[in-house]
Description:
The chain is mainly α and 53 residues long. The protein has two helices and no strands. The model has no long low-confidence stretch (mean pLDDT 88).
Amino acid sequence: MTGVLLGTYTAAFGAAHPLAKKLGAWPSVLAVSAAATTTTYLLADRPTSNASA
């Protein structure tokens, strides 16, 4: 799981630079941060359905 998340963050960092040329620096940072945050939530932070109450 750690490798997948590391790859996600690296890809987001790499995508931010060309995206910044089209959107601007801060909108690009916000867009890739949102994508990385969503991916992290879906892969690692989402509560499991079989958690005991």
